[in-house]
Amino acid sequence: MSSTIFETFRSYRRQTVVHHVLAIAAILLTCLSFVAPAVGEETHVSFKNDVMPVFMKSGCNAGDCHGSSRGQDGFRLSLFGYDPEGDYYRLLEEYPSRRINRAEPEKSLLLEKATGYVSHTGGELFTAESESYRIILEWLNQGAPHDSEEAPLATGIRFQIDKHKFERPGSSLAAKVTATYTDGSERDITRWCLFMGSNDSVAPINDAGVIEAKKAGGAHVFARFDKFTVGMEVTVLPEGDFDWPDPPTDNYIDELVFAKLQDMRILPSELCSDDQFLRRVTIDLTGALPTPDEYAAFMASDDADKRTKLIDELMSRDAFGEVWAARWGEWLRIFTDTNPERGTAMLAGWNYYHWIREQMTENTRLDEFARQLLSGNGSNLTSPPSNYYTMISQGKVDPVRLSEDTAQIFMGIRTQCAQCHNHPFDRWTMDDYYAFQSFFMGVRRKHGSEAREYFTFVDVDAEPASHPIDGRPMAHKFLGGEHADVEDKDARKVLANWLTAPGNTLFRENMANRIWAHFFGKGIIDPVDDVRISNPPSNEPLMAELGRRLAQDYAYDQKKLIRDICSSRTYQLSATTNSSNEQDERLFSHSSLRRMRADVFFDCLTQALEYKHNFRRSSADRALVMFEGGWRDNFNEYFFRTFGQAKRESVCACEDQTEANLSQTLHLINGKTIDQALQRNPKLIPSLLDHHDTDGPIIEALFIRTLARKPSETELQGILNTLPETSERRTRHQAFNNVLWGLLNSSEFMFNH
Questions:
Q1: pTM to 2 decimals?
Q2: What's the mean pLDDT in 204-227?
Q3: Which of 106, 379, 380, 412 is the most exposed place for a label (fewest CB within 10 A)?
């Protein structure tokens, strides 16, 4: 009896120990699978969640491999995996048993090519000992199953930290990226992410997600997984001590800009001089140079508030509205053609421009301006806002073009990539693209009583856009928002109301950023119409506050925001740099040298020369107010083309080119724009010779009318030494023509600074 009891007790203890070991093992396996799903004998491998990430990480579905539109070597995958269903079909069912060998998984062409065992254009992607190989092999061993409808899908990804600051160059950080799924689970997917950086000279990130601090500066790194992209801000501080001088601030803009500079250990430049400010703000607000009388009055004033008063006075002029009408004329693509089948009639374009000019000079709220454009109906000859639907899609109504350009103009978003595949560097998917296109599917156009006239109207019963992959109708959905209720409604008006709501950060920050870029030569997000996760703002708090103020505090009154910008110390900083900010190009620690845009530069040349150039096919008195730019002006077209005036072939802000080049220099030296004015101008130099007996005051007057400043003593003496010692009027006239020519050819004249 005692022996039986002993054996029973010993058996019980063995079972208990086994149970404990199994329990502990189960707990460990659960923990491990939570951190990073391991592929083992009992692990189910998901095609979408496990195999597709291998394709992306290995570059199989990239654009230069099987993800190209035609595939590679007879095999095509969807670009970056936007179509898992199609990828599964092409892998297993397009040519059964060719790429997958269920009987002998190790001999599947998929694995043999990836490991380089057989010839592969892409070379060896991974080895037979790699995790990628084990995942695919396990999936094949399980029969290469397709995922069930209940299989969890990724809903988003995130970096473990969204900001990191390196105290000095030379250190590194291993980033961690986590994905969340529809069933509430999370996985460490760092191993399967694609990584890239915005500034590899400061903080590159390698394929494993390790960030290296190479030199002082700011950067962003990005991770992509599935259809998601996420970013992290990285700062590398310079070595050595740093003392912040606590410079004065004039408003919230300075506080936010200087906070960023202090964080980056960058000192702002000093305040610009009065004459520099006068020239800078007059060109920016009116597209013209300050006159000699305006210069004299401003420089003589001892009013402590004279800069603010000047800003208010300049914004009250019609020229202020004309500057913004020219900007919007390019963004909205005012472009006409005498053939109404190919483009919009000139009369319609002229009416459209003057309506825009009226909105800008009367300071119409930007939200109201956008709503009128998006909901434009009626005749293009008598209802100017309706030209929004004839100018963008010249010749015919094109919902594709309308949806893309509307997103780019009013939200700064380029959705074009998502037409054919999920955006590789942003959050937009093909579903987003076609659901947004649905807002414009009902736009219709018909001829009026004459060939030049079109009537725009809306069919409220129009079918939504269809998804090109499976043909399903795509219900109207706002970009980054919810589905819209458009039943028995004009879908464009529904869109316009959502777009211009004060809480819509996409619209309000895009409008604020476009305004900011006008005054600084670059946007906080730059380019201004390329807003994406992988192109983040250089100062996110500043971007958010400018947008909030514009929409909520100022009710989209752009003059109020512009007054804030021009009144800020940030705008009034000198272009002269210091040792800490000489490399800064994005944080606004100093004023940038900005070449004037083509039409403004032409007008400033005309004003400085006091000579009226003729415009062909236009009665405009300034190039800035030519309703479709200078491309029709055969007399001066070469100037506008050479100096980069927008061709209006698209709505892209990039069409306005302000980079200096050799052709521009040669034209100023040898071209007719300056030479013709100097040779035919009977007024300017003769008037100065009549009013001044000595050379010094004439030189000073020429400096003031071109550069809005007096010459330095060195400059004055240098010029005086080159002038001929004669009283003969014709010789003196030619000598001062040469002085004026030299000033107009200087970089200081060409650039706003």
A1: 0.89
A2: 95
A3: 106
